Amino acid sequence: MRAPAAPVRSAVPWRLLFAHLRRAPFRTVLTLSGVALAIFLFVTLRSVNESFSTAVESAGRSRLVTGSAVSLFVNLPAKLEQEIRGVGGVRNVTHWTWFGGVYIDEKNMFARFGVDVPSMREMYGDLSTGKEILLGPGEWDAFNDDLQGCIVGAGLARSYGFKVGDRIPMKGNIWPGDYDFNVRGIYSAGSPQIDEVSMFFHWKHMDEKVGRRSEVSLFVVEAEPGFDLAKISRDIDGRFESSGNRTRSLTEAAFNQQFISMWGNVPALLTLIAVAVLFAAFMIALNTMLLNARDRRVETGVLKALGFTDRAIFRLNAAEGVLVCTAGGAAGAFGAKLLFDVGKVDAIYKFFPAFRILDETMAMALGISVLIGILSGGIPASALRRMSLMSALRGIG
Amino acid sequence: MLIQVRGVVKTFHRDAETVRVLHGVDLDVAAGEWVALMGPSGSGKTTLLNLIGGLDVPDAGSIVVGGEELVGRDGGELAQWRARHVGYVFQLYNLMPVLTAFQNVELPLLLTPLSRKERKDHVETALSMVGLADRMDHFPAQLSGGQNQRVAIARAIVTDPSFLLADEPTGDLDRKSGEEILQLLDDLHRRFGKAIVMVTHDPHAAKRADRLVHLEKGVIVEDAE
C-alpha cells in the first residue's frame, strides 16, 4: 500500500454530521420542529407588535381626524363639514361613519363604514395623489353612481366569498333598517394605513334610510401642503369651542395612537411571550445537543485518536446545532411568511389590519435561529473539545 | 530503534486517591518488531500502549518514536503526529455506527491531502487486504464482531502508519474470529514489516509476537524473545 503524503491537514469529517442527523431522525425532527414553532411564534408576535407602530408611522402626514370632544362614540352633525372647509389651510374634507349592523349572523364581524364617496375618492382613491384605496378600472365610477353600492376589501372578499355584482344583505342596528348593498368593487390597500377587511358604502344611503339623521362619526381633514397641522387643528376646535358640538382634532398618527393605547400593555406582553418562547426553544435545542454529545463521547475519543484536532471536533458538533436550528428557524420564519403574506390568513388581519411581516423581522428571526444554534451546539461542542482523549475513549467525560 | 521509552512515570488521580500506574518504565521496540504486552489487570500495559501512541502524556520520562520526542508536545501536535504515524486497533473496534465500512476506513484519510479518487483506491485496497471488499457498504451493525475488527484494522492500516498499536484486539471475539484477526496481524507484520505493539491477556495470542514483555504493578518484570 502506498503511504498517503504528508502534511496532515485539519479536516472536519462533515459526513458524520449528516450521518448523525439521519441516525436519529425523530430527535432531529423534534428539535427542528421546536425551533420552527418558536420562530414562527416570534415572527407572528413581533409582526403584531410592528403592526401597531406601522399604523402610526404610515398615517397621513397631512391629515387630521376631527371627532367629538366628548367621546369617539358620539356623532357630530354632518353640516360641520362646510364650516371645517372654511378653515384656512384645509384642502379637502371627507367623513366616515361607523355603521355597525349585522350581516346574516352577529358572528360575522367586520368593519362597515358609511362614507361620502366623492370626497373619499379624492382623498384616498383614484383622484388622490396617494391612491391608498385601489379599485379596478371603472369601479370607482360604478361605486359612486350606485347609492346602494359598496366596496369591500380583498381580505374580506376572500373570507366571505364576495364578488363584484353580489348583493350583501345587512340589518342596521345603530342605523336601523334592512339594507341591500351591491358589491361594486373589491379594493386592495395602497398603503399600510388602509386595511383590506372593511366595507364602505354611501353614508347618504343610510342617512336617508333613517330619515336624515345627518350625523357622522368623524371628519378626515386634508391640509394644503405647507400648512401647519397644529394650527388647523386649533382653528377647527376653536370654531366649535362654544357650540354644543365641541370637537377634538388630532393628527392621523395621534388618532391611530389612541387606538393602540387601548391595547394597554399588550405589546409588552407579546414581546415577553416571544422572548420566553425563544428561550424555551433554546433549552430544547440545548438539551438535545447535550444528549447527542453524551452519546458521542467514545466516538469523539476515537476521532481524536485518529488525529482529528480539538478544533475539528468543536466545529463538527457546533455545526450540528447551527444546522438544525437554522433549518428550524428558516422553516418557522418562511412558514409564517407563507401563511400570512401568501396564504393571507384573514383571521389575523381582522384584528391587526396593518399586520405585515417585515424583511427586518425575517432577518432577525433567522439571526436568532443561528444564535440559538451557535449556543446550543457550541456549549456541548466546547465540552467535547475540552474532554481529554482518554476520558472520551472511556466514555466518562 | 523505532520506539524508545525511557523512565516513563504515569499517575492517575481519582478523587483524593492517587494511583501510580507506571514506575519509570524503559522499553525499546525495533522497526518491524511485534511486541506483546502482558500482565494482570491494572499492571499498566494499556497505559503504556496509550503513551506510546501519543493518546496520553506521561508525568515524567521520555518517549521517542522514529526519532521524534513525544513528551512536551501539545494536543494539536500530538493529534497530527498520531494521524501520520499510528494505526490504533481497539478491543471494542470503536467504529462509527453511523458510517459504512468504507466510510469508517476512509476517516483517517480525510486528514490527508489525497483526492477523493485516491482515497477510494486506498480504502478499497485496505478492505481487500482484510478480506472485506464485498462488505464496503455495510454498517457496523450489519457485520459480525470479527468483521468489525477487520474493518478497524483496515482503518488502522489505510494511512500506512509507522506502526500499529492493538489493545486486546481479540478480547471481544470468539476463538475462531480471534484467530483470524491474529492471522491478519501476522500477515501485516510479515508481508509489510509493520511494527506492532499489542496488549493481550491471551497467552495464545502473545505467542504470535516476536517478543513478550510482562508488566506487573507498573514495572517490566520480564522481557523475552
Quick structural gist:
The complex is a heterodimer of chains A (397) and B (225). Chain A is of the alpha+beta class and 397 residues long. Helix content of chain A is 53%, strand content 17%.
Can you walk through the features of this model?
The complex is a heterodimer of chains A (397) and B (225). Chain A has 397 residues and is of the alpha+beta class. Chain A has 2 domains: 15-55 and 264-394, no CATH class; 70-245, no CATH class. Helices cover 53% and strands 17% of the residues of chain A. Chain A is built from 15 helices and 12 strands. In chain A, strand 7 (167-172) and strand 8 (177-189) form a beta hairpin. Chain A is elongated. Chain A starts with 13 loop residues before the first helix and ends with a helix. The model of chain A is unreliable at 1-5 (pLDDT under 50). Chain B has 225 residues and is of the alpha/beta class. Chain B has one domain (3-224): P-loop containing nucleotide triphosphate hydrolases (Rossmann fold, 3-Layer(aba) Sandwich). Chain B has 7 helices and 10 strands. Chain B has helices spanning 45-52, 75-85, 101-106, 116-129, 145-157, 175-192, 203-206; strands spanning 3-14, 17-29, 34-38, 60-65, 68-69, 86-89, 163-167, 195-199, 211-216, 219-224. In chain B, the strands form 2 sheets. Chain B has a 6-stranded mixed β-sheet. In chain B, strands 2-1-4-5 form a 4-stranded antiparallel β-sheet, covered by helices on one side. The longest helix of chain B has 18 residues, at 175-192. Chain A binds chain B through residues 1-11, 13, 15-16, 19-20, 22-23, 298-299, 301-311, 389-390, 393, and chain B through 50, 53, 55-56, 75-76, 79-80, 82-84, 88, 90, 94, 96-99, 103, 107-114, 118, 122, 125-126, 129, 155, 157-160, 192.
